[in-house]
Amino acid sequence: MGKLADQIGERLVAAGKVSSADVEKALVFQAEIGSKDRSTGRSMRPASGRLGGVLVRMGALSEEALLPHLSEQTGLGVLASDRLPSVSQVNEAIGEWGLSRGWWQSREAVPYHVGGMRMVAAKDPLDREINDLLAHSSRGAAFELCWARSNDIERLLQIVRDGDRARTGNLGDANYLRELAEEAPVIEFVNNVLAQAVDERASDIHIEPGERDFEVRLRVDGVLQTRMARPRDGFDAIASRVKLISGLDIAERRLPQDGRITTRVSGVEMDIRVSAIPGVHGESLVLRLLPKERADLSLASLGMSPDILKAFQEILKQPNGIVLVTGPTGSGKSTTLYSALSAINDRSLKIVTVEDPVEYRMSGITQIQTHSDIGYTFARALRSILRHDPDVIMIGEIRDAETAEIAIQSALTGHLVLATIHTNDAPSAFTRLLEMGIEPFLLATSVRAVLAQRLVRKLDPAKASAVNAPKWLQDEFSYLATQYPAAMPSVPALMAPASGTDDAGSYRGRSGIHELLTVTPDIQDAIVARRSSMELAEIARHTPGAWKFRTLREDGLIKAAQGLTSLEEVLRVAGSQSQGAGADDAMLAEDSAR
Predict the structure, then answer these.
(1) Between 20 and 30 A from 439 (CA), which of 53, 100, 146, 314?
(2) How many CB atoms lie within 10 A of CB 404?
(3) Tens-place pLDDT, residues 557-580
(4) Distance between CA atoms of 273 and 369, rounded to whole angstroms?
């Protein structure tokens, strides 16, 4: 401390802030303070005992004049008085550090966050006890200390003290959070957000806290769109309201939680799945909106091209085997499975589903919810189903080898099995199952077909205009017309968002694009030979028969040629499976030039 004292004293004298005599008096006073504390056994507060603090106490220097020099000397920043952290930021940071509020008060230090970085403001950030204990408590995570003015520290410590009293009263505990959640403005805000989401046909609501505000974003037609931003101080009450009505522990902010709301919003019965995960600025909330009753769960409503629809309907008439639906999260796989069940559901069949969660309720079907927390997994549920005399089994997702093996056994013993699996295209489903350890001959004999899909936004006819196709696209349209004459229009009608319209506002609703791979004898041989997904696609494309395979991208281009969606939307969703990225880039460049 002596070296630092000498340096800061010299710096202050050189800057004309104090005189040499002031520094000498302060050093004597500093020594007296240390001697008195040693004789009484009391611990001297470092901030008041350091040379700068002594000069301030003597009245020789203001704290405002001292701090810039301390910052420059030590390399530690100074917390600006006009950028103090909020109540919620301080309380959340205290919870993350795991140190008592009493300790923060005793060391005159306050934690908070800035842009994801852990920060601690202190009267004396050089205090060895602060540095040692924070280094231990951080468990290797990065953090930064900074200087703070006495008045600012006192204001922030009031937050710490209020929170401490709350633990013996009702501020900060579940009762207080529940009171916040029951306040009329909070209830109204959450209800309005839900109503707006339903009115805009949103599939998800994202409520995301930031450093100084929180945002509400809605996923409409597959694209996230910001709807509002509010000051961060109001977030805790909003989050508590959502957690309260979804059955979550409103006092738990450190662990992920999942809940559910069943309610009526804008006249629509809704199941709302709620996910809360902890972040550096607080809990991020996502609400998945699921109407209890879908107006239309028919195969015709999925937007399948007529030839794909006909082929898929024929596959569903099979008495046994596995039909897989594949695609990323949010691509409509569950809706397709439910539509398939709706198409085959009658009183002559026993249909049982295993789901996590059950998204839509269907009459005439036994639907089972798995509970992995108690060991009731997909595999365990499937074993029990096989003793329940089913004709058709629907599996929400094949996630592991055990589930895949039971699904195959079910198919080989006379059951029709419908299931989803996460792969990018139809041929890759076989690669994924082989990677799980499934024997290729079992796949070849049990799987009947794989349907890959994506969802593209549909153009609003009132906000779209015709555009010319470039040469490469005209050539591809000609190829598609020769290969798929039943699906490809004879005169393509390429459309795009009209000039001057908002891109998001030019679309309304979504439709599927599909890739159907049926398992023929040639495909069976290729599976047994462990051919790659690209080889499977080529074999499927050139296999003679009633159904001719085409890729997601090709089906998307057919939808674009019909004027249902735009080329940009197809490329966004399906990418460049067949032509390559260069063709896509060229097309977009030509569009920009036009």
Answers:
(1) 314
(2) 25
(3) 999 999 999 999 999 999 765 443
(4) 14
pLDDT-flagged residues of the chain (< 70): 1-6, 33-49, 162-177, 294-295, 500-502, 545-546, 576-594
Ordered by where they begin, the domains of the chain are 1-60 (no CATH), 174-291 (3.30.450.90), 299-455+510-550 (3.40.50.300)
Measured distance CA(572)–CA(138) in Å, rounded: 42
> How does pLDDT run across 284-343, given as a tens digit for each residue?
999 999 887 766 788 999 999 999 999 999 999 999 999 999 999 889 999 999 999 999
What is the distance, to the nearest Å, from the Cα of residue 588 to the centroid of all Cα atoms in its chain?
A: 29
SS3 labels along 268-304: EEEEEEEEEEEECCEEEEEEEEEECCCCCCCHHHHCC
**From residue 126, how far is each of 135, 144, 147, 174, 501 by CA, in Å?**
13, 12, 9, 37, 58
Query: Measured between alpha carbons, how far is 195 from 265 in angstroms, rounded to an integer?
Result: 6
Starting at the earlier edge strand, list the strands of the sheet with 447-459: 366-369, 351-355, 392-395, 416-421, 321-326, 447-459, 507-518
Coil, strand or helix: which one is 590? helix
Whole-model pTM: value is 0.66
What's the rounded Cα separation, in Å, for the pair 340 and 268? 24
Using a 10 angstrom Cβ sphere, with 0-12 exposed, 13-18 middle and 19 or more buried, the burial of residue 329 is exposed
Beta carbons of 492 and 557 less than 8 angstroms apart: no
Strands 351-355 and 366-369: parallel
Q: Cα 239 from chain centroid?
A: 16
Nearest to 221, CA basis, from 248, 235, 200, 249: 200
Q: Do residues 534 and 426 lie in contact, with contact meaning Cβ atoms separated by under 8 Å? A: no
